[in-house]
Write a structure and sequence with these properties.
mainly alpha; Mut7-C_RNAse_dom; three-stranded antiparallel beta sheet; single chain; globular; 6 helices
């Protein structure tokens, strides 16, 4: 459910691990315990919709339904602002920090970024405008969160 949020946090530069990357529910009895222990071992922040689970770790309890508002809840907790910087981004697929590639870029793009792990390529293309619009919605939601007016 929070997978889109996970991908966005990676794009914003936050090292983010999704629950399904940590827990195989077919192999453990208590998924929550595995997540709590993972967060303790890695000094990680748990992002969850589960109130009981949130009480067991340093956590952000997500109450919003829209991704921009969810991002705003996390950024408020962290005390950070919303901005896109491809040079600081992580691969939304595998979480590795992407690298700028300037030599021999394919297509019409001056600059691309490549993930050193999964080799996916990223660029500022037509989709960038949509991403900037999402960040604008995040900024508006963040202002509402800071005023205490965000309700999922």
């Amino acid at each position: 459910m929070l997978l889109r949020l996970c991908r966005w946090l990676r794009l914003l530069g936050y090292p983010t691990v999704a629950a399904h990357e940590v827990v195989d529910p077919t192999k453990v009895e208590d998924e929550d315990e595995v997540l709590v222990e993972f967060c303790r071992e890695h000094d990680a922040l748990l992002i969850t919709r589960d109130r009981q689970l949130a009480r067991r770790a340093r956590a952000v309890l997500i109450t919003a339904d829209s991704v921009p508002e969810q991002i705003a809840e996390v950024l408020e907790f962290l005390g950070d602002e919303a901005f896109l910087d491809p040079d600081e981004s992580r691969c939304p697929e595998c979480n590795a920090r992407v690298r700028r590639v300037t030599a021999e870029n394919p297509g019409p793009f001056e600059v691309t970024w490549e993930c050193p792990e999964c080799r996916r390529k990223y660029w500022v293309g037509g989709h960038w405008r949509d991403m900037e619009e999402t960040i604008d919605r995040v900024k508006k939601a963040l202002r509402r969160v800071q005023r205490g007016h965000l309700r999922g």
